[in-house]
User: What shape does this take?
Amino acid sequence: MKKGFVILFLFAISFAVMAQKNVKKDHAKSDLNCKTCHSCEVPTKDQPCLIPCPREKMKTVYESPEQTVDVVSLETLSKKYFPVIFSHRVHAQMSVMSGGCGTCHHYNTDGPIQPCKNCHQTKRNRDDISKPDLEAAYHRQCITCHREWSHNTNCVSCHSLKTDAKGYQKDEAKKKASGKVHPALIEPTKIVFETKYSKGQMVTFFHDDHTKKFKIECTTCHKNETCLKCHDVNKLADDQLKIIKANKSLDEHHKKCFSCHKDDKCVTCHLTKPAEQFDHGKKTGWALNKFHVKLSCEKCHGAKIPYTKLVSKCNNCHGAWNNENFKHTITGLQLNETHAQLNCEDCHAENNFAVKPGCGNCHENYSFPKQKPGKLVGSKK
Amino acid sequence: MSGKSRRDFLKTSVVIGAGVAGLSTSTTKAAPKNILSEDRMGVLVDTTVCVGCRNCEWACKEAHELPAGDLQSYEDKSVFKQKRRPGIEALTVVNEYSSGKNSNLPVDVKVQCMHCDHPACVSACIVGAFSKQENGSVIWDTDKCIGCRYCMAACPFQVPAFEYNKAINPLIMKCDFCFNRTAEGKLPACVSICPVEALTYGPRTELVKIGRERIKRNPDKYVDHIFGEHEVGGTSWMYLSSKNFAELEFPKLGTNPAPGVSESIQHGIFAYFVPPVSLYALLGGIMWIAKHRKELDQEEKS
Assistant: This one.
């Protein structure tokens, strides 16, 4: 009988709420438990006592890890243990390459970050069992990752027992954990994938070429990585040559590469043996000198991919350079007075600056760099 | 036969016969105290959430006054090397299975009595010690138990264990769904201690809804099956999993209640005095053959 009244009452409320925007007419009839959205026993139109739990509008843009809170002390439940001092910022930094802030701050409404206890009840023996209690909510966030790389589930890696911690000071512990930032990542230089493609089993991926030369952001490829991608207590130091068996589906493997390499032939990447790193000299016949090797590709080739062949004349890029205004000093060699008056092609035959300059036009038995037409200057290396 | 007339003898025979016939035709109706309440409680075990900490094993032993040892000693993962079964020393155990190729994490499965809605142990118990209670638990009366171990043979999950090491008054042991704790309004010990609430305690009907909702929300994560929702007619403990249940060594069972099988076999065998009649027929046959052979031997000798 009592239950009947409650249901009737809820119907009445549902009509009252109907007038409000964004609320479905018959939402009280749905399978949802009232307590999922309302904190009080009898929600009314004036006092709906809404709890900021899952809503239609979710938070989509989060602060950068560096802007977030440094250390959080989780103490709502601390009876047996001291509060857990959680280094939030470091974890936020790590989350960038996995699920992002939403990994933990799931269902966060548009607005400020909600504390877990706003939705997860502190008592396990409760009526609304549709979502885990607070203890479980915390633990599910932490243990799932922690046991993945530590291969254990011991409590004391996060908790210090009240019985055996001597002179535990919350502020001290907080201080110790604060100011931590994630150390710089150690990137692999190259990874070799062993694939099932019969015409070319080996795909060599030059990681640092992609990150350094092409300036591809980490998150372009690494979005939903597991902790184990980087962290594993059993993992040995990162060796330079890794051969990884490619087990994922064809789509999964190719998706990341195809965003740029979509027009390439299979055999561009699939070779019969591990590939050698791209060498500008070998591939194009125009070896990069010490100046050009420092430049990013697009500096000369432009942003358009695939890169096109350039004319290997200095003036192609250095249009303003000519015999009069070129300062030879920038090459690291300051010409002496006699040589400074010469034309370029007197030493650099046919204005080909890629090959060794010759002295034969004026001198016999002279050769560069044994004999120098000036002095070396250390300004440029 | 001195005090009894032929008429009396016939009367008793008819009564006994009717009784036997009545027994054999009775269906799987449980004893009166076996109640299948609408509000019976249950536990939903989400194996995708379980982290294999084995705290439940410790809490269970503590709650049942079994030697439990130090909680920290349960961090030892070497026990997972072999698959364990609930026994007299541990009424629940956690086993670990290798993950599928989609995950680096192993799958941990807690094993204990499933607390069937139509328990085979209740049906098999010859002294009526077992009963299904209103709160969903299947418990037994240790004072009635004679240690016949019929429940062990009947259980489709092979859960009841027997105190083989006890010479005097050995008893059956199994998970009792923390009957005493729940009567006081407490949670079962394992549910209470689970750090990740992989075990959700609540009304069975609600748990089924929650289980379905979880599968609906995460169709990639779960196999579309709640183990125990329909198995052997439904169980109070139910499981969600990311892997096929057969790979986690869950028995492959139909949806018919287990007692249906065991009772029909038992009642079938004992119907209409078949075993005694056939036994005496067999013995008679052997006697006749033996006698016949003897006669032949004697004939040959003479």
Residues 190-278 of chain A form a domain with the Cytochrome C3 fold (CATH 3.90.10). The longest helix of chain A spans residues 2-18. Chain A is about 25% helix and 10% strand.
